[in-house]
Amino acid sequence: MTPDELATWRKSERERLIAAREALDPATVESLRRRIDGHLERSFPGLAAARLGFCWPIRNEYDARPLAQTLRDRGAVTALPVVVAPRQPLVFRTWHHGVALADGPLGIPYPATSDPVVPTVLLLPMNGWDGAGYRLGYGAGFFDRTLASLEPRPVAIGVAYEFARMATIYPQTWDVPMDWVVTERGVYRRDPGGLAFLGAAATGEPSRLASPVCYADEIAPDRQP
């Protein structure tokens, strides 16, 4: 596939998957959110000690704000991304209810004046995802650049709906795979052979690899106040 053909294909797939997501009714979106929240909260208890970067939801994406508030109440630092310039890594600024927001690109809010923070964990929405853990985003490459620029690299947890799984996104050299993928079904870990389904901590779905799915040590707990 040539670069132009790949760009056209990704654009078409992105539009298809976003349209399917936007067709979900509010009750379904809320039900999916609660199921994903349960998997994240139970499977990654170390998130309560993390500096967590997450995204303001758009177009029926998974809404991480309720989980972020729960984690913040337990001691986590929560932050939203800020676009500095095209083709540059994102920066993150702390955010919680009460922090003033400004309108950014695509009308997505961001905290303009709060303190910067370097995340230890990123919770990333995905329009699509494949069996190797690669993420189909919106095409600007901000998160790939951000993950490649941060040292140490944050733990990357991709979050999406199960129906958005693809055979492949045809990853390129600049694409950065997720360390974990979480859907309403449960938790996937990226292994050398691709994603391995570990189970559903929130529902008790049997797992061929781990039960229960608890990864406190996988999330860096060394947050700074």
Structural topology:
Layout: H1 3-22, H2 26-43, E1 51-53, H3 65-73, E2 77-82, E3 91-94, E4 101-103, E5 109-111, E6 121-125, E7 128-130, E8 135-136, H4 142-149, E9 155-159, E10 165-166, E11 180-182, E12 187-191, E13 194-199
Parallel strand pairs: 1-2, 1-6, 6-9, 7-10, 9-11
Antiparallel strand pairs: 2-3, 4-5, 7-8, 11-12, 12-13
Could you describe the 3D structure shown?
The chain has an eight-stranded mixed β-sheet, sandwiched between helices. A hairpin with a 4-residue loop joins β7 (128-130) and β8 (135-136). The chain is built from four helices and 13 strands. The model is unreliable at 202-217 and 220-225 (pLDDT under 50). By secondary structure, it is α/β, with parallel strands linked by helices.
